[in-house]
Specification:
The complex is a heterodimer of chains A (about 375) and B (about 70).
Chain A (H helix, E strand, L loop, with lengths): L2 H10 L8 E11 L3 E14 L2 E14 L2 H4 L7 E15 L6 E12 L2 E14 L4 E16 L2 E22 L2 E14 L7 E6 L2 E8 L5 E14 L4 E12 L4 E13 L3 E12 L9 E2 L18 E14 L5 E14 L7 E14 L5
Parallel strand pairs in A: 10-16
Antiparallel strand pairs in A: 1-2, 1-19, 2-3, 3-4, 4-5, 5-6, 6-7, 7-8, 8-9, 9-12, 10-11, 12-13, 13-14, 14-15, 15-17, 17-18, 18-19
Chain B lengths: L1 H18 L23 H14 L17
Classes of the chains: A mainly beta (about 375), B mainly alpha (about 70).
């Protein structure tokens, strides 16, 4: 759905039930690896009795000639389109019970990749709503192809379980803990990436198809502390750890500060640091020392050791007499360092988000 | 995944015990209900950022955005 049409929808919508909203967002990603992604998206949420229904649509327009592209089997600049649709619902079981059930379906479509995700979850509030427990199952299936070979098709199936705990510690503090386990089986490589295999006594490498394990199991845990620091200041600290059976471990630390500026402006700054080790089969260069090609080989630099730093600034302005409108501008810089990938040592990206939303009910 | 379930149960038990230490009455939760205190104050931005991280990094999952309780009435 074009952004312009969605803006018209927002403008034309008449006030409906409370807690109903519509959002239109434009995200632009560009980096010094010659990749640009423009992503318009829309989302609407409506409350009908004890049920909240939501729907969303996103389009990605990808253009670029990254190092992945120029070293691939077809080194021409790419231009790709992807669309994603999602629907979901959350229902409070009874007016007085603290139990909510939720479900959603998402589909993503591009010329060489289709992905489907289904989710079902439940959450319950206990101890006078000081404790919230949640659990969610996600199942998914990906179909991977390639524009170079119409007969090529591989699949991948995902199962994921997520559990969450949120606790109100005091009048100003909430703590969240999330634990997520994932199993993925099927094709995890890229049909576009070729891996060079060098031999000590041969001047030119042999280019092989990428091969990675068919199964990947991971577990991740994250904690976040949110605190009202004063009348107008709010802060959050987050930490996440991850480990999988490809021997990749990662740690993520984040900090956010937000401030209410007057009655209509909420601004925030954030920083995020990420570090990961490489997969046990990852090599900067694969050498044939007489044993032939290694069973597992990859040219994916995100499976090697790497670090990223991300900084962001967000400004959210409430508009209108009834404060039904929100206009948001966010900017971020993402710096990545690939610690064992000779063709590219680092990458720097700029992210810009513009969003306009409107509350469609009596109370924004 | 079994390890993860065990970890979560222990955390939930610890959280339950922690809730018993300080009782916050509904009328005392005004600050907790502020938009800046929500699990995702800016969901559109955070969804987009999470998508970028999942593509540009080698791991994903367990975003703390999954926790959303505020106890607001």
């Amino acid at each position: 759905m074009r952004l312009q049409l969605t803006l018209a929808l927002l403008l034309a919508a008449s006030p409906g039930r409370a807690d109903s909203r519509a959002d239109a967002t434009l995200r632009v990603y560009t980096d010094d690896d010659d990749m640009t992604v423009v992503s318009p998206s829309v989302r609407a949420e409506a409350e009908v009795g004890r049920t909240t229904i939501e729907a969303s649509a996103t389009a990605d327009a990808v253009t670029g000639a990254s190092i992945d592209v120029v070293t691939s089997a077809s080194p021409a600049a790419i231009s790709e389109r992807r669309v994603e649709f999602g629907v979901g619902a959350t229902r409070t079981v009874t007016p007085t019970a603290p139990l909510a059930l939720s479900g959603s379906l998402h589909g993503s479509f591009e010329v060489d990749h289709e992905a489907f995700r289904g989710e079902a979850g439940a959450s319950v509030e206990l101890l006078d709503r000081q404790l919230t427990l949640g659990a969610r199952y996600t199942g998914g299936r990906d179909a991977i192809g390639t524009v170079m070979d119409p007969s090529f098709e591989r699949t991948r199936v995902l199962h994921q379980v997520t559990t969450t705990v949120s606790v109100i510690l005091d009048r100003r503090t909430i703590v969240d803990v999330v634990v997520e386990g994932t199993t993925s089986r099927g094709y995890h490589a890229s049909p576009y990436r070729r891996v060079p295999l060098v031999a000590p006594d041969w001047p030119t490498p042999t280019w092989l198809a990428e091969e990675v394990p068919a199964t990947r199991r991971s577990i991740a845990g994250a904690g976040r502390l949110r605190r009202a620091l004063g009348e107008t200041w709010f802060g959050a600290l987050g930490y996440r750890v991850y480990r999988d059976d490809w021997s990749i471990t990662s740690q993520t630390a984040s900090v956010d500060a937000r401030r209410q500026l007057g009655a209509r402006v909420l601004a925030g700054v954030g920083a995020r640091a990420y570090h990961q080790t490489g997969a046990d089969f990852y090599r900067a260069a694969y050498v044939d020392d007489g044993g032939g090609a290694p069973r597992f080989r990859t040219r994916d630099r995100t499976l090697g050791p790497m670090r990223t730093l991300f900084g962001s600034l967000t400004v959210d302005v409430t508009l209108g007499e009834r404060r039904a409108w929100h206009a948001l501008v966010a900017g971020g810089v993402l710096a990545s360092w690939f610690l064992d990938f000779p063709p590219q040592a680092d990458r720097h990206a700029l992210l810009v988000t513009l969003s306009l939303s409107r509350a469609l009910g009596g109370e924004p | 995944m079994i390890d993860g379930a065990g970890i979560t149960l222990r955390i939930a038990l610890a959280a339950t015990l922690a809730c018993g230490c300080v009782r916050v009455r509904p009328h005392e939760r005004e600050r907790l209900a502020h938009p800046a205190m929500q699990g995702a104050a800016w969901p559109a931005v955070e969804r987009a950022d999470a998508h970028v991280f999942s593509v540009r990094e080698g791991t994903e999952g367990a975003s703390a955005e999954g926790g959303g309780g505020c106890g607001c009435n």
